[in-house]
Amino acid sequence: MNKMTSPVDLDVDYGPLYAARKKIYPQSVSGTFRNIKWALMAFCLGVYYFLPFVRWDRGPNAPNQAVLIDFPHRRFYFFFIEIWPQEVYYFTGLLVIAAMTLFLMNALGGRVWCGYLCPQTVWTDLFYATERWIEGDRRTRMMKEKGKLTPRRVGEIVAKHSIWLFIAWWTGGAWVLYFADAPTLVKELATGEAPSIAYISIAVLTFTTYTLAGHMREQVCVYMCPWPRIQAALTDEWALNVTYRYDRGEPRTSIKKAVELRAKGEAAGDCVDCYQCVAVCPTGIDIRDGAQLGCIMCGLCIDACDTVMTKVGRPTRLIAYDTDVNIKRRLAGQNPVYRLFRARTLVYVAIIAATGLLMLYTLMTRSALALNVLHDRNPLFVTLSDGSIRNGYTLHFLNKLNSLRTVALDVEGLPDPTVHVVGSDVITVGPPLVALAPDQTREVRVLVTLPASAKLGKSMPVVFGVRDLETGETTTTADHFIAQ
Ligand code: SF4
Ligand code: SF4
User: Quick check: CB of 319 below 6 Å from ligand 2?
Assistant: First the structure.
């Protein structure tokens, strides 16, 4: 009989699984990747805070805000695009494109989304910049936290948290502006006349921004966000991840010691073991230990190391966006290879392009008139006293134009039908007319009657069609006429 063995020695006390947070004091750094991060931060925050104030003329009776989520009227406006609830499938397309873009970024440059564009990174970076501006750089901040609470220090703490709260409040305030006319809502908020949901939303977002960007910071990336786990499963050996190039030699040691080692004919690496790459890291990791879940691939350690390498007169990019494959190739004396075009990147690009083109085509060719039909469930049909058979339907009309239009209703596929629009006074043999108000959905009940003399099947297909009398635009929808 097999004896079950545990991989854990039950007699050993391994201590608690919880690891207390080690507070991180990232040092400021300058260089290529820091500049890219500043530029992207300015762009993202600029778009987020000011986009609600951009105007877009859609004609009379329509909102002129370029980006607006209009819940009361159940519309989403994005510049020239107007999405109705019936067209929510466009959001599915957008989600597919967003997911594939994230996968593509990962296949090309690892967690570049996390390092440069994720809101958590952008706002945390902004909060760090504020902290540095008020309290000083890494060493100063560390000393101040250990030091006494002087009036000046209290002033700094109050100033820092006040500015953080202001940024958080502004973030929440900008969010609600996407759900109403921004200039009007700003006035209402200032005069206390805005709806209570606006104040509640601002309060919630102020709290979450202040907490996540001011206090939780890297913990969100390391413990809360699922993307690092998914990203680790999706990556491959050709993705350009931030990598310490250990092919530049080992051991890592001081300049003086490296000189001594080399004089003795022993090996020494280019790394001078200065820990600058760790000091600037916003998640506090040492990238020289290899790829890690905590690395958001922001590239700041590259900038820090490049500065050090320049000072000591050694080639830069000891840390770089690279692959383990290339490190092994260099160690073997081969040239590095980069494979940006490979099966997965091409598949991602193809899916993004196909979904984008399909959405564009449907947007360009979509009708401003829509019609849906629902057959009565009970009774399915009614036999009238003269032997004729009547079916009832509910028609949903959708007029996406900002003008009144009159449409003619046709019923095709049935022998000699009589069509009666409930609420209309006359029963006509010709097509009845239905008026549709601007930008409106209208529900109309329609009765279709076939004479007793008609040869009727048990269930016959029927097509409802509408035609705009002015523009000639048409649309159809199909159902069945039940006779038995
Ligand atoms: S290891 Fe480098 S790239 Fe990764 S998070 Fe830290 S500083 Fe950014
Ligand atoms: S910054 Fe460069 S030289 Fe300094 S410890 Fe990091 S990898 Fe080594």
Answer: yes
Handedness of CA 32, 36, 41, 42 (dihedral sign): positive
SS3 of residue 483 by DSSP: coil
CB-ligand 2 contact for 288 (6 Å cutoff) = yes
Contact 209, 123 (CB under 8 A): yes
Dist. CA 423 → ligand 1 center (Å): 69
In short, whether 159's Cβ falls inside 6 Å of ligand 2 is: no
Residue 430 pLDDT: 67
* Pairing of the two strands 369-375 and 382-383: unpaired
Nearest CA to ligand 2 atom 4: 274
Q: How far apart are the first and last CA of the chain?
A: 71
* Residue range 415-449, pLDDT digits in tens: 989 899 998 755 555 688 999 998 888 999 999 99
**Three-state DSSP class for 92?**
helix
Quickly state the pLDDT bin for 1 (edges 50, 70, 90).
very low
Average pLDDT over every residue of 134-152 = 96
The answer, yes or no, to whether any atom of ligand 1 lies below 6 A from the CB of 121, is no
pTM of the prediction?
A: 0.84
Residue 368: burial class (beta carbons within 10 Å; 0-12, 13-18, 19+): middle
Decide if 177 contacts 186 (C-beta within 8 A).
yes
Computed on alpha carbons and rounded to an integer, the radius of gyration of the chain in Å comes to 33
Question: How many CA within 13 A on the CB side of residue 82?
Answer: 20
What values do phi and psi take at 337, rounded to 5? -125, 145
Query: Mutate which of 247, 278, 318, 322 to test ligand 2's pocket (most atoms within 8 Å of Cβ)?
Result: 318
Q: Is 305 in the pocket of ligand 1 (CB under 6 A)?
A: no
CB 271 less than 6 A from any atom of ligand 2: yes
Structure tokens at 38: 């500043």
Instruction: Cis check for the bond before 251: say yes or no (omega within 30 of 0).
Output: yes
Q: Look at residue 84 and tell me whether its pLDDT is greater than 90.
A: no
